Phosphoserine phosphatase (Mycoplana dimorpha), 334 residues
Amino acid sequence: MSVAASVFRCVSLAVAGLVVLAASALAQSDPLPSWNDTAPKKAIVAFVERVTTQNTADFVPESERIAVFDNDGTLWVEQPMYTQLAFALDRVKLMARQHPEWKDQQPFKAALDGDMKALAAAGQKGLAELIMTTHAGMTVEQFQKIVTNWLATARDPRFKRPYTDLVYQPMLELLAYLRANGFKTFIVSGGGVEFLRPWTEQVYGVPPEQVIGSSIKTKFSMRDGVPILLRLPDVNFVDDKAGKPVGINEAIGRRPIAAFGNSDGDLQMLEWTTLGASGPRFGMLVHHTDAEREYAYDRQTEFGRLDQALEIAPDNGWTVVDMKADWKTIFPWE
C-alpha cells in the first residue's frame, strides 16, 4: 500500500468513526426524531429508561425485554384493505381462467368484481377460504418467490408506491430504539406468517424466526429425491384476537413487557402483555387520525376497527398515539 493510500485509509476511517459517533450522539439525544415531543414519545422513552437502568427495582434483564408488534395498521398501511388481501385478490384474478365457476361463487365472485362490501360480509371464514385457495398447492419456497415478486411490482392504489414503502417511519425508529436498548422485537400479525417472512428483515430489521402469524398446514414430502414442504388448503392457526397471546406463548415462551397495536384485533395481546403481570409493562395503540397524510378511521371501518380497545385504553394505562398530533412524518419518503 502506498503512503498516499495509507493516509487516505486512515483519514477515511477517522471520518467514518466521527460519523458513527455523531449518529450515536444524535440517537441518544433524540432516539425518535419523527415523533413530536408529546406524551406518547415521553412515555416510550420513560419506559425504556425505567427498564434499562441497572440497580433499580424496575430493571429488566435483556433476556426478558420482549416487545411485540402487530403489523397491519401498526407498522404499515392497512387501508383501503389489508395488503395480503390485495395480494390474494390479484391471485384470484390470475387463477380465474382455470376456475370459471368462480364468477358465480362467493367469495371469489366478490374478489373478481372488486366488491369490498361483499368480501367484508363473507367474514373470517370467507377470507380464509380465499386465502387458502390462492396461497396453497405449492411449496414454501415457491410461495415465498411469488410474494417477493408481487411486492416488487404491485403498487398501492392511493400512493402509487410499493407496499413496502408504506411503512411508518416513527415505528421504524421505535423498533431500532428498542433493539438498541437490548429489546428483542417480534411481529405478531393476523396476516399469514409465510407472507411476512420473505421481507420483514429487510424492511423492519425483524428476522423470519421472530415473526408470528396465521398459517395454513404444511406437509413434508420427497419430490424427485428432494425434500419439500407443501402448503395445504387447510387452516393451521389464526393469529388474531385471542389467538395472539397463544401464538406468543407457543413461539416465544416468554411474556412480553411491551406490546404495540392499532385495533381490537390486538386487544388480547395488549391485555396479556400488560395486565396481571409483575414489573413494568407498556401497551400502545396507534390511532389513525390523519386523513390528509394517511387515513382517519377507528370504529366504523371493516379493516383495523378500533373500538373496544380504544375505550378501555385509559383504564389499562395504555398509551394512545394520535397519528396527526404525535408524528412529525409518517412515511420514510416524505
The CA atoms of residues 153 and 162 lie 7 Å apart. Confidence is low (pLDDT under 50) at residues 1-27. The domain at 31-79+160-326 is CATH 3.40.50.1000 (Rossmann fold).
